[in-house]
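Researcher: Here's the sequence for the chain we discussed earlier.
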Amino acid sequence: QVQLVESGGGLVQAGGSLRLSCAASGRTFSRQAMGWFRQAPGKEREFIAAVSWSGGSIYATDSMKGRFTISRDNAKNTVYLQMDSLKPEDTANYFCAAGPRFHIYSDWGQGTKITVSS
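Model: Thanks. This is the structure I predict for it:
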């Protein structure tokens, strides 16, 4: 099992930027694919982006490409989500997840909340 703790959320004005971090412990982090998701109130969970264990492959939702960037630092057991040009509709709880490969996630963090004001 991998334990995941997200941080970096908060209140930001539209057009601003935030960088989320997800610190991992437990099962070997460097062998896990990592993903970011979000869930807005009253909506289903939405996939944002994922990165392979090596960092060499990235898969991202087309609608968020250019604004959101995923990266990882295996030496720090951490995956990041850089979010730029934030919009009020980006308001949500953001979660990271770990798994053996893309789209197969077995461990989830508790989430960090982001509120984007207009």
